[in-house]
Design brief:
0% strand; Serine Threonine Protein Phosphatase 5, Tetratricopeptide repeat; mainly alpha
């Protein structure tokens, strides 16, 4: 019975038409009654959308817009409110992951390979990388025959894929280096695999990788620990 009395005052409250005493009584009830508070949020959301619902005057009957008589309108409002909340959370999560996964492109120099075709392609890819044309670099490296795709080729391709917003492809290159246990690129492959997983939204996978690297005797141990701390604070 008390809830019904206060629901008659929702629109007046949203318009600031209540007296100070009425407003205090209204808030004392609504902020302690979850069901009524939900009704207040729904009504506010409806008034802020394009449903063209005008606030009722104090003398109007609330039954005119009772939600139970307008199930479609109530459903639409809930979809809007919930959808907006989900989109907001997804946007915030995406921005957080982007911040945690930022990195400066490592310096990569031209070195010899075992095959003339591979050497030519690798050299051109490094030049493209140094010029910031990462997509062109990936194209050159993808032309190298599989038997001559060495860890250094995979590493350059993985970094270039990260920089062209292909974290899934990058993760595959780094995983291949890790599986081969190549000491020249093993630590770096672990670290950048963690970055790639973050950019895919795989926070738990990234944590596991950084945890592994932070426990190793590696020059990237501190950087891995830093990413772990950022993840812990954010999630």
């Amino acid at each position: 019975m008390q809830c019904r009395r206060f629901r008659h005052q929702i629109d007046a409250y949203l318009r600031n038409d209540l007296s100070e005493t009425q407003r205090q009584e209204f808030e004392n009830h609504y902020f302690s009654c979850q069901h009524c508070f939900d009704q207040l949020r729904i009504r506010r959301a409806l008034m802020e959308t394009n449903f063209n619902l005008k606030p009722m005057t104090i003398g109007e009957k609330v039954s005119k817009f009772r939600f139970r008589r307008h199930p479609a309108l109530l459903a639409a409002s809930l979809v809007i409110v919930i959808g907006a909340s989900i989109m907001g959370l997804q946007w915030q999560r995406g921005k957080t992951l982007e911040r945690i996964s930022r990195f400066s492109p490592p310096v990569i120099l031209v070195t010899e390979t075992r095959n003339q075709q591979a050497e030519t392609a690798y050299t051109e890819a490094v030049k493209a990388y140094q010029n910031g044309d990462y997509k062109d670099g990936v194209a050159h490296l993808s032309n190298i025959p599989e038997p001559f795709v060495s860890p250094k080729v995979r590493f350059l391709r993985g970094i270039s894929r990260l920089l062209t917003k292909d974290p899934q492809g990058a993760a595959k290159d780094f995983e291949a280096i890790i599986a081969a246990m190549d000491p020249s690129y093993f630590d770096e492959a672990l670290f950048y695999k963690g970055i790639a997983l973050l950019r895919q939204g795989n926070v738990s996978g990234a944590k596991a990788v950084f945890m592994r690297l932070s426990g190793m005797f590696s020059p990237l141990k501190g950087e891995a620990r830093k990413r772990l701390d950022m993840i812990e604070k954010a999630f």
